[in-house]
Amino acid sequence: NPVAKVKFAxxxxxxxxxxxxIINDVIVDLASPPAGGEKFSLITCxxxxxxxxxxxxxxxxxxxxxxxxxxxxxxxxxxxxxxAMDRMYLHASxxxxxxxxxxxxxSVSCPLPKLLSDFLVKED
Length: 124
Fold this sequence. Notes:
It contains 3 helices and 5 strands.
């Protein structure tokens, strides 16, 4: 980011980066005040490149920042989310890569932590 050096941004002559995403069929409602009743989408992101803060920058740039993101969500939105949960709602559930030494496909997965799943109230 040419203005805030600690942040990253989408700029005209910047490096290419691509993040595919799908909006899951789950619409969520923050369980705790002050944001209770506000609608959020649970999405799956698949970064195709590996830029610093890539998912956070891309989602913020389309007006849908990660819940609790102190850097890219804006001060008011991140403060409200931090009152309800003490972290960003961002979780790497799976990653696959080719091991550069053995040339084998490595797959690692991790379920959503209880802290994050407890934060959601699913609508009927």
